[in-house]
Structure formats: structure tokens, C-alpha cells
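thoughts on these C-alpha cells:
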Amino acid sequence: MAQAAVQAETLGFDSVWTADRIIIPWQIATAYPYSSDRQFIVPPDRPFLEPLTCLAFLAGQTHKIDLGMSVLVLPYRHPLYWAKVAVTIDRLSKGRLIMGIGVGWMEEEFNALGVPFGERGRIADEQLRILPELWAKERCAFAGRHYRFEDVAFVPKPVRGAIPIWVGGEGHRAQRRAGEFGDAWFPYFVKISPRELSSRFANVQHWAARSGRDPNLINLNCCLPIDLTENAAPYEEGSLVGNCDQIRTALKAFEQAGVRHLALQFMVPHWPERMGQIELFAREVLPSLRNPPESHQ
């Protein structure tokens, strides 16, 4: 992990990301929405480290690269606890943390953790309403259906006044959540055209306006799988599969559609080959991107 993060920083990438999983059941009946066969891609006997702990570790191994959570399943943890961990990482990294958040998809994991699967959206929304209280108030209080506390101190505060919240999820409820609470909409798609992504983002902006927020302050960000090939691949709109020229063209299309930050999941299963693709991307594709990443605030 340290080698990968330091190398990504050296190569000029903007951020590195961790994913959230606490336990993996041996039998999973819930359909996984991010693979073609709807099966979860990580076997239960593979090591899966706790992600916030990993980001704290990487905060001490790096100097300038952003540290992203993609995405924290909010109902798995009490908001006072995970917010304290997040602020700790944010302070120790001098403001480099990005909190991607989501509501989760695996019913078996919810059952094992004793969290009601059917309430996960309402639990997440309540947690997001708590955050401004923690970020800004000297004496914090909240009274809701799932969480209740009064007259508590929460210090230190985030370096930038608040930790950026990027709302994951692809459906209408996630889009509404992003519009109401997020600094960005941050979905993951196996494949989507830039045109379709931009069209769906319009719904995020609609909900922002309905919530009394400025839609222009919410970024369109996205996470996509990528596979760099030596030879040209058959063209598929919205797919990041192909040689360097094809990837450059695809990335430009997403940029023109309004995407501000594109997180890349390199899909090569073995580490040496994956690192080779990352280095090739940095050498041949990264310099051609038109503008440097803008502030996440």
C-alpha cells in the first residue's frame, strides 16, 4: 500500500482511494451491482483491511496526494465515531481527506453487523444531517430517529472547516442525497456514456436547487474501471478499455461532459501488471489532460 501510494504521488496522480468492507460472508445471495455476472468480486478468504485505518497509515507515508474513501458505508458505524476518525486523518494529513459515502448493498453484511438493511438510506441521511453540527458548533446536539446526543464537544474541527463529502450511489435516491448533502456526486459505473452521466447529474442539480443549495457548487465526479491495452480495442462509448490514444479520447469526452474528477480502478488482477498499467497511464495519458485538478472544496 505504501509503495502504491507513494508511487502514485510521484507519478502525479491527484488521489488514492480505499474501499469499505468489514466482513465478507461465505454465502452472498445479494446481487452485486458492479460486475457483469452480479457476483461479488472479492473471495471471502482474501485479506480486506479496514479502510479508514489504511488511510491513516497512508497519511503518514505521503505528503501531498489526496486520500479518498470510496465509499464509506455510513450505517456500519456510529457517526460520532467515524467522524472522529475522519477528522483525525484530516488533521494528520493537513487537510487531504475526501470522504466518499454510501448506503451499502450487501444485505448479508448488514445482518452480520446488526444493522437494519431496509433503514440504511434513512440512517445515512440522518448521519449527513449530523455532520454540519460536528464541523461547526462548539456545543453539538442532535435528536433524530436513529441518533440522539446533546451538549457534546467535538474537537478538533476539519482543516478546511469541513471534510468534502462525495456521495456515492447511482440511483435516484443517491442523486437526491448528493443534491441535498454532497459536495459532489460520485457514482461508480461499469460503463456509462458521458452524455448519460451528464443527464443523470441534472437530477442531482435539481435536488440541490429544491433543497435551497446552489447547484453550481456540487461537482460531477465519477469512478470507472480502466484497462489499458497494447493494441486498439473495439470501440464502446463510455468504456475505458483500449490503448493510450483511445483512453485519451474517452477521458476528454468525460471532461467535456462536466466531470471534474475521475477515479480510475485499474482492473488488472495481478500487482506487477497493474503497476505497469498505472505507470503507462501516468507517462502517456496523464500529461495530455488539459487542466490540473481543481480544489475539492
